[in-house]
Specification:
There is one protein chain. With 417 residues, the protein is of the alpha/beta class. Helices cover 39% and strands 16% of the residues. The protein has 13 helices and twelve strands. α10 (276-282) links the parallel β9 and β10.
Length: 417
């Protein structure tokens, strides 16, 4: 595949391009100019309970790496990913210690799961090395104050802020009630994931003027959520938001339907509500369900330049469409990382990388996920965001805000109640 560097930069803008074929990492083994390589640690769970979305995340990074290497690498250096499967926190800690002990690995990426990210980034930060998170959302990742820990993807707070914007700026009018009169409930699984989102939601609800906002925690491993649904039914909510994994998202939807809980709208928070398995289990009853999440493939392509190329390369390599937005998020984050390394002249020294990262700026709507780039004082990319999607048939289509949407939102009675 002959793509010279000038052509690559012209096609990519910030490194997101369309190339006729995607080589495997092994196929990119030929050293680039100067025979040098840039070694980057990569921590993702591709086995164990987190494997589904961990594998999706890793796939996005692999596609980005292969395309960049095929186009000449970064500053004449071939990118070499030092991969580690981290199915749990213990593995994340031990594998990060192993890679951080190598003098050639000064920078690492990961990791889908917040718990895994917290463990791995801690090791790299304490060792004076850099860690870039591409998918985990816990606020704590960047709140600890490590100057060499960065996050390029949206954080948990972005999810609830987008939900509250959607309620205030769109649903309130469509449901015929001012924000102050809407009854809104957040049903959430009660692990650290759900609790973190719930705490953010309470703050954002207060800011939005949702005075009738409450939460309903539940155990994600429960086989019966009817008591939770009946408590919600007693409050006659206009809107239910939810934070769920895969199985409990399906169970909650079925029991809302079976117990006749009539709603004006239902908004998921990523997780199980983004997965095809959710729609497959509920069928037509899932149509109309909203979900806030990382960018999905059904999105305004003018706002997400390069997304067609990403989707075609994913289909070519994995014989199907992405299972979630995690592959695209990590593809975009990896390309942003490579652009920063290009800016630093291919230097992964923590000081050189930090100087490049803190000075780089990019407007939204310039990457395959629609994200831009600008770090705040906690090293969080403030120009990455999540969007509102809605199930229609077998597609999770982006419907809000308008610049990212492929169609208008539709007000459909959730779960066919």
């Amino acid at each position: 595949m002959n793509v010279d560097r000038r052509q690559f930069m012209r096609l990519s803008g910030i490194g997101i391009i369309g190339i006729a074929a995607v080589p495997t990492l092994a196929a990119c083994a030929t050293a680039s100019a100067g025979g040098t390589t840039l070694k980057i640690g990569a921590f993702f769970p591709v086995s164990g309970p987190l494997a589904l979305l961990g594998e999706e995340s890793w796939r996005g990074v692999q596609i980005a790496t292969d395309l960049r290497n095929a186009a000449g690498g970064v500053a004449g250096k071939k990118i070499e990913l030092k991969f580690a499967d981290v199915p749990d926190v213990n593995a994340a800690t031990s594998e990060s210690r192993r890679l951080a002990s190598s003098p050639d690995v000064k920078l690492a990426i990961g990791s889908y799961s917040s718990a895994l990210s917290l463990a791995a980034s801690e090791v790299f930060a304490r060792g004076g090395r850099s860690f870039v998170e591409l998918g985990a959302v816990s606020e704590e990742i960047t709140a600890r104050g490590y100057e060499n820990v960065y996050r390029f993807n949206p954080s948990a707070g972005d999810f609830t802020k987008m939900q509250m914007r959607f309620i205030s700026e769109y649903l309130s009018e469509k449901l015929g009630k001012p924000v102050s009169e809407l009854q809104v409930i957040l049903a959430h699984e009660d692990s650290a994931y759900g609790q973190s989102v719930a705490e953010n939601a309470k703050k954002d609800a207060a800011t939005a003027g949702l005075v009738n906002f409450s939460t309903e925690p539940y155990n994600a491993k429960s086989t019966d959520l009817s008591s939770t649904v009946l408590r919600m039914k007693d409050k006659s909510p206009d809107i239910v938001m939810a934070v769920s994994y895969a199985a409990d998202a399906i169970l909650l939807g079925r029991q809302i339907r079976d117990n006749g809980l009539k709603l004006g709208a239902f908004i998921g928070t990523g997780g199980g509500h983004s997965l095809m398995s959710f729609h497959e289990a509920l069928g037509d009853a899932a149509d109309g369900i909203f979900d806030v999440d990382f960018t999905q493939i059904y999105v305004n392509e003018k706002f997400t330049p390069g997304i067609q190329d990403f989707t075609s390369k994913y289909k070519e390599r994995y014989q199907g469409l992405p299972a979630s937005g995690h592959a695209l998020a990590n593809f975009t984050g990896a390309n942003l990382l490579f652009d920063l390394l290009e800016k630093s002249g291919g230097k992964d020294d923590p000081v050189e990388f930090r100087n490049a990262a803190t000075s780089f700026k990019l407007d939204q709507g310039k990457t395959a996920a629609g994200w831009g780039f600008e770090l705040n004082d906690k090293n969080q990319n403030e120009r990455s965001d999540v969007y509102i999607m809605q199930w229609k048939g077998t597609k999770l289509e982006t419907v809000w805000p308008p610049e990212a949407a492929v169609r208008e939102p539709e007000i459909i009675t959730p779960f066919g109640v």
